[in-house]
Amino acid sequence: MIRVVLPYHLRNLAGVGAEVSIEVAAPVTLRAVLDALEVRYPMLRGTIRDYGTGRRRPFLRFFVCEEDWSHEASDVELPEAVAAGREPLLIIGAIAGG
User: Fold this and answer.
1) CB 78 within 8 A of CB 28
2) What is the bridge-based pairing of β-strands 89-93 and 60-64?
3) Rounded to whole angstroms, how far apart are CA atoms 40 and 55?
4) What's the predicted TM-score (pTM) here?
C-alpha cells in the first residue's frame, strides 16, 4: 500500500483525512500513484494534474523521502521506502504571495 499525504484543500474535496493508502501495482511511479489516486477519488481528477497535459498543477509540489520530486519525470520509479509504504508521498500546497 502506498501512503499519500494530501494538502488540506484536496483532503476536504475528497472527504478524507490527511493521509490515504492506495494499492499500486509495480512499477511504482509518480504517474502510477496519481492515476490510482484519481481512480479511487475521482473528484481529484484535474486538481493535481492538468487534464490535457498531465502536468503537475501550479502551486502543488511532490516530496518523496524529504526530496522535492516536483520536476522529476513521472515515470521514474519511486524509492523502495515509498513503494513499501514506510514513507509517504507528500503532495504539498505551495505558498506564494507578495
Assistant:
1) yes
2) antiparallel
3) 19
4) 0.91
